[in-house]
Each structure stands twice: as C-alpha cells, then as structure tokens.
Amino acid sequence: MTSIGEQVERRWNRIWATAPYAVLLFACVVEVLTGTSVPRVLVTLGIAAALAAWHGWFVLGHPAWWDRLTWMMAVYYVGVLAFTTLLLSRSDAFEVFLPMCFLLAFAALPGWPAYPAVLTANVPWLIVSEEDPYTKLVTLAMSTSLAVLIGGMMRTMEREAIRRRMVNSELVAMAAENARLHELLLSQAREAGITEERARIAREIHDTVAQGLTGIVTQLEVAADAVPAPVRHRLVTARNLARTSLVEVRRSIEALRPGPLQDARLGDAVRQAVTTWHEQYHVPASFTVTGTPLPVHSEVEVTVLRAAQEALANVGRHAAATRVAVTLSYMEDVIVLDVRDDGRGFDPSAATGFGLTALRQRVAALSGHVDVESAPGAGTAVGVSVPVIEVDR
C-alpha cells in the first residue's frame, strides 16, 4: 500500500515525463501553421519526432535510469540539447521548448550535476541567437539565475517531501510495532493470569481433596484390620477406590500445573482404570494398547483417561454388559480410545446425560471428537480421538 507522499511523487514524475511532448506538439503546430516550405516543415517535424522518440526511449521506456544511472541521463540530456539546437536553427517556433531544457536538467539529473546542466541549457539559444554579445550575456545571466533559483526550490521541496515520507513511514512502523508489543503484553498477561489461577486451583485441590482422600485411605486401612471378613472385603474395595481417586486427583493437580509430563504413563493409567472398574462391577474387561506409546501433554493424558472412566462408568450403570473391551491406539498424529460393550445399547440421538456432554466438550477443547455407535440391544462403542501433543522425554 503506497503512502500519499509516494502517490504525489509518482504524479509529478508522470508530469515531467510527459510535459515535453505537450510543448513539442505545440511548437510543431505553430511550425505547420507558419512554415513557408512544405519540405522544410516535414524535415523539421521529422527532427521533432526524433526528439520525442529520444525522450521516450530514455524516460518512458527506462524509468529506472533517471533515478539510478546518472551517466545515462547525461547522455539523454546532451541529446535533448542537440535536437533542440537543430530545431531552433530551423524554426523560431521551437523557442518555446527552451524553458523545458532547464526543467529537464533538474528532473533528469540528480544532485549537483543538474547545476552545470542548467548552464549548458543555454547552448542552443547561444548558437542560434543573432543578438549582440551584451544582450546575450544579460539574457544568459538572468535565465540561468532564474532557472537555478527555481531548480533549487524544486530540489528543496523534493528533499522535504522525501524527509516527511521517511518520517511518516517510521511513525507508521513504530505504531505497528507498538501495537504488536501491546498485543504481546496482553497475551502474556492473559497467560500469566491463567497460569496463576491454575496453580491456585491445584493448591486448593491438593490441600483439600487430596489430603482428605489420603486421610480416608488411612482410616480404611486401619478399619479393615478390625472388622469381620465379610465387611473387610467391602472396606478393601472402598480403600482401593479411594486410592484410585487419590491418584486421579494428583494427576489432575499435575495437569493444572504449568509444564509437560515427562513419562508416557497414559497406558498405565487407563489400565488401572479398567482394573478398578472390573473389581467394582465384576464384569470381564480387557485392555489393549496398539502402536508405540508416546509421552503426551498432561491435558491430553487427562482427557483420554477421563474419557475411559466416563465410558466405563456408563457401562457399569446402564449397559448390563457381560464383557467390555478397551483399546488405546497410538497413531501417527492422534490417540484413539475405543470402549466397546455387549450391553443393552441405546439411541445416541436421545442421550442427554451430563457425563457424555461434558466428555464431548473436554475432547473438543483439544480439537478432538467423540463418536458413539449404539442401538437398542446391539451394545455400544465409544470412540474418542484427540491429536497428539508430544513432549520431550
């Protein structure tokens, strides 16, 4: 996107590049109207056409030359003076082109070379003029001084325009950088706030739920040794559930704290969940791992583990199944958990339980998806797929 200063500069470049054609055309029209000899007029027009082609080749045909190749534009300017001298020697109508030579000196030649070029712009007039030397000298001094004054003003305005454009560009760049830094600071502040809140929640869970479960496990261990055998079995089951819950709470605390997990423990956690579920419901359950286990981010680990627990809990409460199969598959870029049972099944479109809805939300937060395949009397298959977010070992 170009700035206003650049647009103005391009507009002025187009003006000085095309202005000589307008002046030359006017002189040619005057020559045609006032010329007395048709052959002479035709030759003069041919020279004017050659000057137009010369200007077009150097300026319009190669616009980069006038800004970079000073020596090429010096050749161009010498050619312009030569053609102008020849035209003046044939017709006074082309005297209107003389001021254009002064302007082209500053337009075509950058820096100090423009000032000697202004002096040489008088050469065509000096060669063809028939006035006395004193008049020539006065005219030369006045025209050159005026041209230098106007050219100097043009150069000053050009430098000021360039300076302002550079300053504006720097200001725009600074504003963009400030906006970027502001956005970065806001992002870091948000991340710091999230991290701090997660750490606070982790501390609260550790100091309340985790400590409470630890006390429950301790009390159940003591009570199991002081009760009859039939009751002891129930206490042992309750103790194992409390221990499993304590492990899950600690895993949740670890997931809330910043930083990745260092070991690939997802398979062991799901296997323990399957074992605990089997001990609770006394339903045969198998667990299989396929692919190469990878250490994954704690949020992926917790999401897959919670999915396994939720699916198994639903089987235990509603399915009346006689067999359950759980498969954890490590693929190239996803982890897939499949929980299948041979229970009574249900209509997935009519399922409105909070557990399944929460599971879908948790998985969707990691850009994963949950597929439930079931029908009344045909069992249920729950598939959970989440992308792999690896961590270094």
TrEMBL record:
Residue ranges of the TM segments: 15-34, 41-59, 71-89, 96-114, 134-154
Entry's Gene Ontology molecular function annotations: 4 iron, 4 sulfur cluster binding; metal ion binding; phosphorelay sensor kinase activity; protein dimerization activity
Gene3D superfamilies: 1.20.5.1930, Histidine kinase-like ATPase, C-terminal domain (3.30.565.10)
Signal peptide: none
Major localisation: cytoplasm
Cellular localization per UniProt: Cytoplasm
Any one Pfam family match given in the protein's UniProt record, by short name: HisKA_3
Start and end residues of each Histidine kinase domain: 304-390
InterPro entries hit by this protein: HATPase_C_sf (IPR036890), HATPase_dom (IPR003594), His_kinase_dom (IPR005467), Sensor_HK_TwoCompSys (IPR050482), Sig_transdc_His_kin-like_C (IPR004358), Sig_transdc_His_kin_sub3_dim/P (IPR011712), Sig_transdc_His_kinase_ChrS (IPR017205)
Cofactor(s) listed: [4Fe-4S] cluster
Record key words, sorted: 4Fe-4S, Cytoplasm, Iron, Iron-sulfur, Kinase, Membrane, Metal-binding, Transferase, Transmembrane, Transmembrane helix, Two-component regulatory system
GO annotations of cellular component type: cytoplasm; membrane
Reactions performed catalytically: ATP + protein L-histidine = ADP + protein N-phospho-L-histidine
E.C. numbers: 2.7.13.3
Function description: Member of the two-component regulatory system NreB/NreC involved in the control of dissimilatory nitrate/nitrite reduction in response to oxygen. NreB functions as a direct oxygen sensor histidine kinase which is autophosphorylated, in the absence of oxygen, probably at the conserved histidine residue, and transfers its phosphate group probably to a conserved aspartate residue of NreC. NreB/NreC activates the expression of the nitrate (narGHJI) and nitrite (nir) reductase operons, as well as the putative nitrate transporter gene narT.
Name used for this protein in its record: Oxygen sensor histidine kinase NreB
Species this protein is from: Saccharothrix violaceirubra
Lineage of origin: Bacteria, Bacillati, Actinomycetota, Actinomycetes, Pseudonocardiales
